[in-house]
Amino acid sequence: MSTWGHEARTTTGRVADHVEAARARLLGAVQVDWVSPAAAIYLDRLSEIAAGVDTLARRADACRDDVLRHVHAADAAVAGALRVDQDAVVGWAPEVAARLSR
Questions:
Q1: DSSP per-residue string spanning 3-40
Q2: How far apart are CA 4 and CA 6, in angstroms?
């Protein structure tokens, strides 16, 4: 894989790790035994935030997959272009050698 692919995987992996850590902290807070009405409202809000973080984590995974798909496509395109150029040079080699020997 290209350096682009490695960077994309590393960067998006770090984003996903941060999202997961935030989610774990939120869920840790949610596991407290809440008794007052205000605490119940706060608990509901934390649950909403945790759901939002889950959505963000899924989107981060989707973005990582999209980025990696584009990186692989770019790598394939570059490899294809290099292969075409190499084939062209090999095809021209006898002609160039003949001209140089004159």
A1: HHHHHHHHHHHHHHHHHHHHHHHHHHHHTS---SHHHH
A2: 5
